[in-house]
Design brief:
3 domains, alpha+beta, Immunoglobulin-like, five-stranded mixed sheet, rod-shaped, about 375 residues, single chain, Heat Shock Protein 90
Length: about 375
């Protein structure tokens, strides 16, 4: 018996390959080519999210020497390279596959031949659970946003209500203090001055030192009475009604100008921007700042014009009170207060409490401008 190498021919046979079995979560779905009708028709396997453990069995239709057949498989969408196995391991298993789309491909070959093209393939889609679908997540996000918005609304409403209650309590307390000062302290002090005046009237004229001392005490008492009445008026002037800042500032002229003197300054209120509701505390403090600035200008600066400007800006709320009077002494501006007076200090404290900043510009015989700026998020109903 003889053998010639020339008699060897290259093996070009490409055996067909078929899926012979499928298991889902350990339970067989079919055998041979007997798959469910929908699967075999569309070559597309649609599974629920919990059907994510798959095992494929396959075989090559080459029987001459089946023990030498070779196989390779790949699950596209999960793997990028082929897995090579021999005839003794004709099973591919995948566990806990995540939801998504895949294509299982398998090819076969004889011991020396080429791989079958294109081989066998089946598409697989594992559906997402209902709580992972876009419509559920979108709905849950919308509900969450609504809950957050509702919580924020009720929180802001609650805070606003708390501050309104605080404002009402503060106004009530100020009114009570003003009433007690007027009914007890002022009346008692006024009675004491009457007694001093009666004593002054009984002192002989030649007792010059005693008369001078009593006159000085009476003058000081009169000044104290005036200051006390102003303090009572300040206490009662707080707590203007919502939306009445312009009207309240307009009424300042009638409050301070009690006569028809021709030397009365001209006064006007200017509103810029679209009027918006102010926080009650901001509204109250801004009125007090404007009132103090008006009083200082009217009583100390001899102005010809006084102007109050309310600017409802989109980013910043601004209040300005300006006059063309004699101005404020530079040393007073540097110190931020006048000896024995607390007007500038009080305006600054109110501005800071309202969440804003106070600036004062003044020059000798060139007038004064008082400006308060408050961020819009603080001024417009946020406190």
């Amino acid at each position: 018996m003889s053998f010639s190498p020339r008699s060897l021919a290259e093996d070009t046979y490409e055996p067909a390959v078929v899926l012979t079995g499928l298991e889902l979560n350990g339970a067989p779905v079919g055998s041979g080519r007997i798959f469910p009708e929908a699967i075999s028709y569309a070559r597309h396997l649609r599974l629920q999210f919990d059907q994510n453990n798959l095992s494929f069995e396959f075989a090559a239709l080459s029987y001459a020497n089946s023990g030498t057949n070779r196989y390779r498989y790949m699950l596209q969408g999960l793997e990028t390279e082929w897995r090579n196995v021999d005839a003794s391991r004709r099973i591919a298993s995948y566990t806990i596959l995540p939801p998504g789309s895949y294509v299982f491909r398998v090819q076969a070959a004889t011991s020396r031949g080429p791989w079958s093209q294109p081989g066998e393939a089946i598409a697989i889609t594992i559906e997402r659970p209902w709580w992972a679908t876009w419509w559920f997540r979108s709905g849950a996000t919308a509900v969450l946003l609504m809950l957050i918005a509702s919580s924020h609304f009720y929180r802001v409403h609650g805070i606003r209500r708390q501050f309104e209650v605080r404002l009402e309590e503060r106004v009530g307390e100020r009114t009570r203090i003003a009433r007690e000062l007027h009914d007890s302290l002022l009346q008692g002090f006024q009675g004491l001055l009457y007694r001093l005046q009666a004593l002054r009237n009984t002192v002989p004229e030649h007792s010059t030192e005693l008369v001078a001392a009593l006159d000085a005490a009476l003058e000081k008492g009169d000044q104290t009475i005036v200051q006390a009445r102003e303090a009572v008026q300040d206490l009662r002037a707080s707590g203007i009604e919502a939306g009445d800042l312009e009207a309240a500032l307009t009424a300042l002229r009638e409050e301070f100008t009690q006569d028809d003197s021709p030397n009365q300054p001209m006064y006007r209120v200017v509103v810029e921007g679209r009027p918006r509701a102010l926080s009650p505390l901001v509204r109250d403090d801004m009125y007090q700042v404007a009132r103090e600035a008006f009083r200082n200008a009217y009583r100390h600066a001899q102005p010809r014009h006084i102007e109050a400007e309310i600017d409802y800006g989109e980013a910043v709320f601004t209040l300005r009170v300006r006059d063309d009077g004699t101005g404020i002494e530079p040393e007073v501006l540097d110190r931020g207060t006048r000896s024995g007076h607390f007007g500038l200090q009080g305006m600054r404290e109110r501005s800071v409490r309202a969440g804003g900043t106070l600036n004062v510009w003044s020059e000798r015989n060139a007038g004064t401008e008082v400006e308060v700026t408050i961020p819009a998020r603080v001024a417009y109903g946020r406190i």
